[in-house]
Design goal:
mainly beta
Length: about 350
């Protein structure tokens, strides 16, 4: 069953205290999650809603050689920032991840004017979205004692309607709670400097996937997600996003999609199995013959801690794919040229 076409986005995700559930063809201008009424049976102060709202803005991008994964996360009582660069040719991973208490990032209500930054003595990372103007700018630098491991980069993702086909969703999580997400495949330009070497990113092989998300998730949450991108033999930009999240009715409410250049195709629910664990092959299939993928993890990217009532067992390996996805016209998209991320996430917080 292919889902209905995407609707026009409402002005606000919450109106009159209630969520506007749906699947939309553009970012929602005002993601006012804190305006929801009675998300936990009873009225609660805004402080409680702030403490239960998880938010992140993440990016995966690169070309045939370099894969980058970066983002800002807030899952009270913890927050994290990370920027990982992975050289697929030399199998070398470098970057940083910092975890700290509190909610230091000022997440905006929309992508039209969003600026997130992390600055320390030797690490700087900034993500600035001006969606309506057609750009997302990323800037990063990290200095280490080893000059060969110091790096910097400036990247630009193009979000104009001629280049991008976003999907925004507001999906129910029970009571008057919801998850929101905007995802899009975007052309990439920029440069990356490592030690004395430099690389430029341009042309059809350079692209990235935006993931801007918020939600009133359950205290104990399990979810899985795979996303990949790359150019096909026709030099088209190809990308996909497939998830198993806490939304109960996946047949009606999901965010699964395939991108081909600036066109988007909805995909049905999928089942993900990891018979030998998250660092071995993942099997991703639907029941309609549209998705038949194997994700092959290559590089680890784990986050684990256990403080009793607060815990994380979060696997985010990078890797390649094989198999196929079919678009809405029945065209078979081979996955062997795609590369990306798998997430197997278990959280208590």
């Amino acid at each position: 069953m292919i889902l209905n076409p995407l609707d026009e986005a409402p002005e606000s995700i919450v109106e009159g205290g209630d969520f506007r559930f749906g699947r939309y063809s553009s970012p929602i201008p005002r993601v006012n999650m804190l305006d929801v009424a009675r998300p936990y049976h009873y009225p609660v102060p805004e402080l409680v809603k702030r403490c239960r709202l998880r938010q992140w803005q993440a990016y995966q991008f690169g070309d045939g050689r370099w894969y980058f994964y970066a983002g800002f996360y807030s899952a009270p009582p913890f927050s994290q920032v990370l920027f990982i660069a992975y050289d697929r040719e030399r199998k070398r991973k470098l970057g940083f991840r910092r975890i700290f208490p509190g909610r230091p990032f000022g997440f905006a209500e929309g992508l039209a004017s969003s600026s997130l930054a992390f600055n320390r003595a030797k690490i700087h990372f900034k993500a600035e979205s001006r969606w309506d103007a057609g750009t997302i700018e990323l800037a990063v630098s990290s200095r280490t004692r080893d000059p060969s491991a110091s790096f910097s980069g400036q990247f630009r993702l193009v979000s104009s309607s001629q280049q991008a086909a976003p999907i925004s969703v507001c999906l129910p999580l029970g009571l008057n709670r919801a998850m929101y997400s905007t995802k899009a495949l975007l052309p990439l330009s920029g440069e990356f400097h490592l030690g004395g070497d430099s690389w430029k990113f341009e042309g059809p092989d350079a692209m990235g996937v935006l993931d801007d998300s918020k939600g009133y998730y359950p205290w104990a949450t399990h979810s899985s997600w795979v996303s990949g991108f790359g150019s096909d033999p026709k030099r088209r930009r190809i990308g996909f996003s497939l998830s198993n999240n806490p939304v109960k009715d996946q047949a009606r409410d999901n965010e699964n999609c395939l991108w081909v250049n600036n066109r988007i195709y909805s995909l049905p629910p999928v089942k993900m199995t990891k018979p030998q664990g998250p660092m071995r092959e993942w099997i991703i299939q639907d029941t309609e013959g549209l998705v038949d993928l194997v994700f092959v993890p290559e590089a680890t990217n784990d986050l684990r801690f256990n403080f009793g009532v607060l815990a994380a067992d979060w696997h985010s390996p990078f890797g390649s794919f094989r198999g196929m996805i079919r678009n809405g016209s029945g065209e078979k998209i081979e996955a062997e040229r795609l590369y990306g991320l798998g997430e197997d996430k278990n959280l208590r917080m």
